[in-house]
Specification:
Distance between the termini: 148 Å
Number of domains: 3
CATH architecture of the largest domain: 2-Layer Sandwich
Strand order of the largest sheet: 3-2-1-6-5-4
CATH class of the largest domain: Alpha Beta
CATH topology of the largest domain: Alpha-Beta Plaits
């Protein structure tokens, strides 16, 4: 071999050695060996150690340096017969294990290469520290396992999952195997939006079809998905027994706006519990806001509505409204002479009369014999006619000796009234003026009897 060739092979050997912490040159006939390494200073191969029985020394070094949980596997795997057999058949022998250095284990990797030609009795063994890479791989594997478990958990929640090409419309429909948290292909199609439109009339509850047709129209669906990042719908599907609620959830994978992943989940039980809860809450709120005797709204409900109106007034967004205050005449006398049951019947008659006069507005019982009405909409527009009807009804009842009440009505004036209490006070003043007038009418009627 020429000097130039020697230089070339030396450089190759050094380059290989730089990739390994140690290289062993092993004679498989007599087990002698030499350990080489590359110096960090001048980048030359140097002899680090040598011995006459590589495998005997390996056992000693294993017990001394190899991490205890890895020792038996190391010794069982790194045997001469296994090593020679592998390289004899043209294979490379590899092994990963941990060495204890500086008090903590680090990952190492060894690889064998058989010599060629007249050197076929020799084996080269390279030992490399792979601790940093191995721990990165383990961390990545750990993260991957977490993602897998998360994916399995999500998959198990859905009845069906679609993978949709938003441009072409091609899609794959998967069915969830809840037992194994796996997916199996059910359908592959070429027009998701066309197929969805066709299937809506077959499997969707009739009342929910218009909404679903609109939301699954291709252009709108894509715009909603790309605009908000997610599409979330609740609707009912037809079944042999009763329709059941399902939830649709769709999102585009990160950095892939050309595709969408859609899940269909059976949420019937949860949805029906939610409906029951809302109905129960509504019933409780209804009880809390209504007068138990008359059935009209109570003082608490009146305060709540006036607070809402006050906020609108403060924001200069108050609607047109008026307040009517009505005070029932003679309740104390009836309670004192005929008893409270008769008084309750009297109040209920007054309440029914007030509700018939204010058919389109909320009526509140705000005291024992006092009612309030917040006129809106038709009642506000027709308030003059309502005042006329009240006057006629009261005069008629005075003649018959039936229930009567005094009434005062005042309109909200934008820019003048700062709160609903201002309107209330005017209406209350008008009511007391009306009450004096009605008392005179009742006295005249009584004197004529």
């Amino acid at each position: 071999m020429t000097d130039n060739e020697n230089i070339t092979f030396s450089r190759l050997a050094l380059a290989l050695a730089n990739d390994y912490q140690s290289i062993y040159y092993l004679n498989t006939e007599d087990n002698s060996y030499v350990e080489y390494g590359a110096t960090s200073e001048d980048k030359h191969l140097v002899e680090l150690s040598k011995g006459s029985d590589f495998f005997a020394d390996t056992i000693v070094n294993c017990r001394r340096l190899v991490y205890e949980p890895d020792q038996e596997r190391f010794l069982d795997t790194f045997r001469k017969d296994s090593l020679v057999e592998a390289v004899k058949n043209g294979k490379s022998f590899t092994l990963k294990y941990r060495l204890v250095l500086n008090g903590h284990p680090e990952f190492y990797y060894l690889k064998t290469i058989r010599g060629t030609g007249t050197d076929n009795k020799y084996i080269f063994i390279g030992v490399r520290n792979i601790d940093a890479q191995e721990r990165r791989d383990q961390a990545a594997a750990g993260e991957y396992e977490k993602y897998v478990e998360i994916a399995k958990a999500l998959v198990s929640r859905y009845e069906f999952i679609y993978y949709i090409d938003l441009d072409s419309g091609e899609y794959i429909k998967y069915e969830s195997d809840n037992a194994g948290a796996k997916l199996r292909v059910m359908v592959q199609g070429t027009d998701f939006f066309g197929d969805a439109k066709m299937n809506i009339d077959k499997v969707i509850y009739p009342e929910d079809r218009p909404m679903l047709r609109s939301r699954l129209e291709k252009e709108k669906f894509i715009n909603d998905l790309r605009g908000g990042g997610i599409v979330n719908l609740t609707y009912r599907m037809i079944s042999a027994e009763n329709p059941f609620f399902v939830g649709l959830w769709a999102v585009s994978p990160k950095n892939d706006l050309k595709h969408a992943v859609m899940g269909i989940m059976n949420i019937d039980e949860a949805k029906r519990k939610e409906i029951e809860y809302r109905e129960a809450l509504g019933t409780a709120m209804d009880i809390a806001n209504h007068d138990s005797l008359t059935g009209v709204r109570n003082h608490h409900a009146y305060i709540k509505m006036t607070e809402e109106l006050d906020l609108l007034i403060k924001a200069n967004r108050a609607p047109e409204f008026a307040i009517a205050i009505l005070d029932v005449n003679g309740l104390k006398t009836i309670n004192d002479t005929l008893g409270h049951n008769a008084g309750d019947r009297y109040i209920k008659s007054a309440s029914a009369m007030i509700c018939s006069l204010f058919a389109h507005s909320p009526v509140f019982r705000i005291g024992g014999d006092e009612f309030a009405v917040i006129l809106k909409g038709k009642d506000y527009t027709n308030r003059e006619r309502i005042i006329h009807n009240i006057r006629d009804s009261i005069h008629e009842n005075i003649k018959k000796g039936a229930v009567t009440f005094a009434a005062g009505i005042s309109e909200f004036t934008e820019g003048y009234d700062k709160k609903t209490a201002d309107v209330f006070e005017r209406a209350d003043k008008f009511m007391y003026e009306n009450k004096k007038h009605i008392k005179k009418l009742i006295q005249i009627r009584n004197s004529d009897i």
